[in-house]
Design brief:
This protein is about 70% helix and about 0% strand. It is mainly α.
Length: about 110
Amino acid sequence: MSEVLTAETWIGMGVAVVMFWGVASWAMIRTFRQEEKKISIVEDQRRIDTYSPNALEDLREWIHSRPDDPDVEVAREQYNECVDVLKSADHRFYDWSDDEVESLERL
């Protein structure tokens, strides 16, 4: 009992394999480049911005919305540390504009 796969099946499997390896390779190369950029920034400055603009905004909103949370002080310290790094760093990992950084204030 032998069944033969159709040409469409072989083409579908080939496309799936090529797409899987293509996406996986792109993701791996992108990740390595990001990590290389982080290492370069840390070696140059000894500090790096730890939050993207959206993530830092989310953290600020979380701190304001939960003033009685037991973890709010830790969150505030991390927020302030990121603000300090952004204001003192020459190079930033995330895409912060100078205006965005100037508008940040410690909590």
